């Protein structure tokens, strides 16, 4: 049995279409999805290799901490979750979710937290703050007369970079700014300006560049190491009559922003200080701030992969990867695309929305 | 064997109606599955719309009906789907000439076992990229592309049919002049009738409701005879005139392709500065290699050579493309897949096709058609 099925690449925020090749309920490769308007069957290496995510370090059974993490039944694992949440007042409970989940999962989790009275909830996006602005479309990029790029967009998000190449072929002038001596985006631009630091861009940027910002221009902002810079740059360029595209990190960071509060690294560490029970969905906070997690009484980890957080959790709930669920993702330019379930999750893993619903049921909450 | 011409159509009414030209190809597939002569049939099904061709493995003959019809806006490639994922199956596959060429090269390299597959060829005047086709229909036909229910290329025109039965057509030359129409490599493609398959079927020279089939191999002949005896297809002999017309169209198409070769491989061939600019785009993503049926090595030299190469921002084209070129150019079948998938819009197929053509002129080796391996092929890559 072999089938080829459409999906969206989960590896960055651009949202390319890819076809997965499925053989005997296993993802064995990808195949160009030429009908997809965004990338026409073209992908970067991450896109072509996204089928590997389906198999990578998968969680297949619920785990419960006794003497170490041990395989358990769903009932036992969920009972442990429910009793711990019930044991603590709502302000001591925190919920975080990654930018890699579906919009439907964000909605479900939002309802769950609301009915539970939990206010410490958010999506952890690392460096990117919540953005509430209309962004340029990819067609806008292609039709721009002038494009200003901050970060190595062509290297880091090549299928967004492709639209810059197309614009250049259409006669657009390209100007890039970044820290290294040379970048791939810089090499492909008409002009490249090297800056000391991203925070100094506003002071250092060539004034003739700013004069070129108009309704026919696009500013693409990517690859920033801290959220303050991102926010400053957005505010700065918003003064001009130019279109803007912020490049987010995860395949649904943008969707998460529309539904849940956004947590920067600092916000996340503040949140962790306030709470005793943490429920993590699809994320790995331990990989960046394990110290801040030391004072937690109980950690519940739900997701598809083994990671640093699952290894220090008290309960681990095996969820589904993107190819195993139906829902939608919103890409960095704000376009929402549907994905459909192509595969069954492995072992006893379940659909994430289903898991949240089961917890709610056991808690006696309506969703 | 000597080739033989005939007209065929499906006996099953539904296949005859849903098929592109009488559904003979679909009927052959149904016969092969029903008689357990194959384990599966690899073809295309129409996904969301006529621009969405999805490779499909059919194992139940009842499902053949959903694969009927030609999709001209679906430039797929079956070669490495078979070699990588279906090599152990007895298979029948619908092949455009480029699919048949890729399969032939893979057979010679022992990546596909030719005894396991039936290659039912489709003549091919060219295919279009789905998104280009949609833009073209919007701009030149002034039609919402989602309202098109069928498209075909006939008598030099690209013809669309709308749900209410109306047709609109425009000369393909005119569309291609403006950068639309068939993929550029297809414009240069000279193999219009896949005589490297077991059968070659098409509408050239056929009467409405019939497919014109050229029998190429003994295997193809046996298949047709069996399907006829089994009551799956009806056949008749085409008129002398039909055979001549078909030959004339084929020749005209080949001449046109040669004209386009001259245009794209010589007159408009990018100059050194153009190439410098193109190579600057390269992100070393290996998409071109992965899409090329001829790049089948399990351990690719490119990965070795670039394993430690962190200095250059842009890969050195002479090493990166040079290595791939030196490995495959002599066998390039001009399928255009490398170019289709390059995220950086580098017109890769022109380089490979141009070099192959020079090599062909010197050695007479025609990739995908010649029975032997190219004279330059190094068995160390096996
Ligand atoms: C891109 C394309 C261009 C063509 N151009 C010509 C031409 O110029 N001159 C000519 O004489 N004939 C051409 N044909 C062949 C012709 O359209 C018919 O396919 C052929 O006559 C068989 O008709 P049928 O009714 O027997 O096919 P059907 O019974 O309808 O079966 C057709 C089979 O082809 C498969 N198929 C459809 N699209 C593709 C594709 N893109 N790649 C691989 N398999 C596919 C289908 O899934 C199905 O199995 C072309 C076909 C294609 C796909
Ligand atoms: S390369 Fe040749 S055979 Fe392949 S789709 Fe194009 S015209 Fe048809
Ligand atoms: S080099 Fe390109 S055109 Fe030539 S066979 Fe490979 S993918 Fe096809
Ligand atoms: S597909 Fe294009 S960008 Fe990728 S390695 Fe090949 S030439 Fe470079």
In short:
The complex is a heterodimer of chains A (367) and B (382). Chain A is of the alpha/beta class and 367 residues long.
Structure commentary:
- The complex is a heterodimer of chains A (367) and B (382).
- Chain A has 367 residues and is α/β, with parallel strands linked by helices.
- Chain A is 31% helix and 25% strand.
- Chain A starts with a strand and ends with a helix.
- The model of chain A has no long low-confidence stretch (mean pLDDT 93).
- Chain B is of the alpha/beta class and 382 residues long.
- Chain B has two domains: 4-127 and 182-261, no CATH class; 271-381, no CATH class.
- In chain B, strands 3-2-4-5-9-10-1-11 form an eight-stranded mixed β-sheet. A three-stranded antiparallel β-sheet of chain B has the order 6-7-8.
- In chain B, helix 3 (79-85) crosses helix 4 and helix 9 (240-267) packs across helix 15 (348-363).
- The longest helix of chain B is centred in the middle third of the chain and has 28 residues, at 240-267.
- The relative contact order of chain B is 0.13.
- Chains A and B meet through strand 1, strand 2, strand 3 and helix 6 of A and strand 3, helix 3, helix 5, helix 11 and helix 14 of B.
- The complex binds flavin-adenine dinucleotide (FAD) and iron/sulfur cluster (3 copies).
- One iron/sulfur cluster binds at residues 75, 96-98, 124, 126-127, 185-186, 189, 335-336 of chain B.
């Amino acid at each position: 049995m072999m089938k080829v099925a459409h999906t969206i690449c989960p590896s960055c925020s651009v949202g390319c279409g890819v076809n997965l090749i499925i053989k005997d309920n296993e993802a064995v490769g990808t195949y160009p999805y030429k009908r997809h308007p965004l990338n026409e069957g073209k992908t970067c290496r991450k896109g072509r290799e996204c089928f590997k995510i389906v198999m990578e370090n998968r969680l297949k059974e619920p785990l419960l901490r006794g003497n170490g993490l041990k395989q358990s039944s769903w009932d036992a694992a969920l009972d442990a979750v429910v009793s711990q949440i019930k044991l603590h007042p709502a302000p001591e409970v925190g919920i975080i979710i990654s930018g890699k989940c579906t919009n439907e999962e964000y909605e479900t989790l939002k309802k769950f937290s609301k009915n539970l009275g939990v206010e410490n909830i958010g999506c952890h996006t690392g460096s990117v703050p919540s953005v509430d602005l209309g962004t340029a479309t990819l067609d806008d990029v292609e039709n721009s007369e002038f494009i200003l790029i901050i970060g190595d967009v062509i290297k880091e998000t090549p299928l967004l970079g492709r639209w810059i190449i197309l614009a250049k072929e259409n006669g657009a002038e390209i100007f890039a700014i970044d820290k290294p001596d040379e970048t791939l985006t810089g090499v492909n631009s008409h002009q490249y300006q090297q800056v000391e630091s991203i925070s100094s861009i506003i002071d250092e940027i060539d004034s003739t560049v700013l004069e070129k910002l108009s309704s026919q221009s696009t500013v693409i902002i990517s690859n920033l190491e801290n959220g303050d810079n991102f926010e400053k740059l957005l505010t700065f360029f918003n003064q001009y009559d130019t279109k803007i595209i912020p490049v987010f990190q995860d395949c649904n960071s943008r969707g998460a922003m529309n539904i849940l509060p956004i947590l920067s690294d600092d916000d996340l560490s503040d949140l962790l200080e306030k709470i005793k029970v943490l429920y993590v969905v699809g994320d790995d906070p331990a990989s960046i701030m394990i110290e801040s997690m030391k004072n937690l009484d109980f950690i519940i980890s739900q997701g598809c992969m083994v990671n640093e957080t699952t290894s220090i959790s008290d309960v681990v709930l095996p969820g589904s990867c993107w190819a195993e669920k139906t829902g939608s993702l919103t890409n960095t330019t704000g376009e929402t695309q549907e994905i459909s379930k192509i595969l069954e999750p492995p072992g006893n893993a379940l659909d994430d929305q289903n898991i949240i619903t089961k917890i709610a049921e056991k808690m006696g909450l309506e969703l | 064997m000597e080739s033989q011409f005939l007209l065929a159509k499906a006996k099953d009414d539904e296949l005859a109606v849903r098929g592109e030209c009488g559904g003979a190809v679909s009927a052959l597939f149904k016969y092969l599955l029903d008689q357990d002569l194959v384990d599966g049939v690899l073809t295309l099904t129409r996904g969301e719309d006529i621009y969405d061709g999805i490779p499909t493995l059919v194992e139940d003959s009842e499902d053949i009906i959903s694969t009927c019809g030609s999709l001209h806006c679906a430039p797929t490639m079956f070669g490495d789907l078979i070699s990588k994922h279906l090599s152990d199956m007895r298979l029948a596959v619908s092949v455009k000439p480029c699919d048949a060429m890729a399969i032939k090269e893979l057979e010679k390299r022992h990546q596909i076992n030719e005894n396991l597959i039936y290659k039912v060829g489709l003549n091919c005047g060219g295919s279009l990229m789905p998104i280009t086709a949609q833009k073209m229909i919007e701009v030149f036909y002034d039609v919402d592309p989602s309202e098109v229910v069928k498209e075909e290329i006939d008598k030099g025109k690209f013809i669309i049919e709308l749900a209410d039965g109306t047709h609109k057509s425009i000369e393909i030359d005119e569309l291609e002049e403006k950068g639309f129409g068939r993929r550029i490599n297809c414009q240069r493609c000279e193999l219009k009738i896949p005589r490297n398959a077991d059968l070659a079927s098409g509408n050239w020279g056929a009467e409405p409701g019939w497919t014109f089939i050229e029998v190429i191999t003994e295997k193809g002949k046996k298949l047709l005879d069996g399907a006829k005896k089994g009551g799956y297809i009806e056949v008749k002999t085409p008129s002398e005139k039909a055979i001549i017309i078909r030959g004339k169209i084929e020749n005209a198409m080949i001449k046109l392709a040669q004209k386009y070769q001259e245009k794209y491989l010589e007159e408009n061939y990018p100059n050194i500065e153009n190439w410098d600019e193109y190579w600057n785009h390269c992100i070393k993503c290996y998409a071109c290699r992965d899409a090329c049926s001829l790049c089948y090595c399990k351990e690719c030299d490119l990965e070795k050579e670039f394993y430690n190469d962190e200095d250059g921002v842009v890969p050195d084209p002479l090493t990166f493309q040079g290595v791939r070129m030196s490995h495959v150019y002599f066998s390039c079948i001009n399928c255009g897949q490398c170019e289709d998938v390059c995220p950086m819009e580098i017109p890769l197929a022109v380089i490979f096709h141009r070099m192959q053509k020079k090599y062909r002129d010197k050695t007479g080796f025609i990739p995908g058609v010649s029975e032997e391996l190219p004279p330059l092929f190094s068995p160390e890559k096996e």
